[in-house]
Amino acid sequence: MPEPTRLLLWTDNAAHYAEAVEAAGLSPRVRIEVLPRKATLSDEQLAETEAMLGWGVPPGLLPRMPKLRWVQAPTAGVDGWLALPDLPPGLVLTCARGTHGDSMPENILGALFHITKNYAAIAEAQKESRWVRRVSRPLNGSTLGILGMGVIGQEVARLAAALRMEVVGTRRNPAPMPGVAEVLPPERTDEVLARADYVLLLLPGTPETDNSINAERLSHMKPGAWLINFGRGSAIVDEDLIAVVKAKRIAGAVLDVFREEPLPPSHPFWTTEGIMVLPHIGGMHPERDRVVARLMAENLGRFLDGKPLLQVVDRVAGY
């Protein structure tokens, strides 16, 4: 009988992942080792680990893991992994794309309702026992522009269509989609920006998208339009967004992702009127680890059987 495959769970919530391996009937074929995120790998773990679930590694570590053939990232974004200067070319990297398909669309809808409804201001008035009549703006009849029509974008489009919004978007390989009036290639992004009342960024972190939402791009947005970012903080040129919001060339922005997280207390996003800072809540939900664990266990079974893995990262595309 062959030796069990050495699987390292380098995470603080390893129990969910170990349970998923057990539920999939894979326990006899693997030797699981658990390591907290801030702990350091032992010499034996470096030498013997063949598969790993991990949030990220420092430069210089992967070349010291000669048997490592597969890494499962617990997040959809893998910018940190791809930025490693010594990421082995033969290492298979899979991500957790699609595991936040429920929570993120709902949080995006929450951002749209925050913009158009007055519950936050009403709650503040209640603290002072003030009765202030307010009029909410309807989403019905408005246009939502989605830059990045992946799995999340398509689900948001479905929900937005149910609210009778018009949806237009961009995708690398444009094709008609249910609930979407028009899908355009990224080269026509400016057209989406000009049409949309609400611009939703769901862009991956790639060299092409970094700093792509700059002063020139923002100039195409309507004066009353809002920018909503649940994709990558690196897509936005921070100072350009602050400038257009302060000048009221757009109505404002709701941001859930940032170049540096946690967002430093000194960052002007905190104090710019019209910009709402969310603490990266988009994909989080109480069962997130269990959902990712099921994906990891499915991939582990495929890895052990020599079958193609799910959600393999395309290093050229960047996601």
Question: Could you walk me through the main structural features you see in this protein, from its secondary elements to its overall organization?
Answer:
The strands form two sheets. A seven-stranded parallel sheet has the order 8-7-6-9-10-11-12, with helices on both faces. It has a five-stranded parallel sheet with strand order 2-1-3-4-5, with helices on one face. The chain folds into two domains: 5-99 and 286-305, NAD(P)-binding Rossmann-like Domain (Rossmann fold, 3-Layer(aba) Sandwich); 103-277, 3-Layer(aba) Sandwich (Rossmann fold). The chain is α/β, with parallel strands linked by helices and 319 residues long. The protein starts with a strand and ends in a 14-residue tail after the last helix. The longest helix has 18 residues, at 288-305. Strand 10, helix 9 (238-246) and strand 11 (252-255) form a beta-alpha-beta unit. 29% of the residues lie in helices and 16% in strands. Helix 1 (14-23) packs across helix 10 (288-305) and helix 4 crosses helix 6 (151-162).
Structural class: alpha/beta
Order of helices and strands: EHEHEEHEHHEHEEHEHEHEEH
Question: What name does the CATH topology of the largest domain carry?
Answer: Rossmann fold
The N- to C-terminal Cα distance equals 37 Å
Q: Which stretches are low in confidence, meaning pLDDT under 50 for 5 or more residues running?
A: none
Number of domains: 2
> What is the 3D form?
elongated
User: Tally of extended strands?
Assistant: 12
CATH architecture assignment name of the largest domain: 3-Layer(aba) Sandwich
User: How big a fraction of the residues is strand?
Assistant: 15-25%
Q: What's the main sheet like?
A: 7 strands, parallel
Task: Specify the CATH homologous superfamily of the largest domain.
Answer: NAD(P)-binding Rossmann-like Domain
CATH class of the largest domain: Alpha Beta
Radius of gyration: 22 Å
Number of helices: 10
Fraction of residues in helix: 25-40%
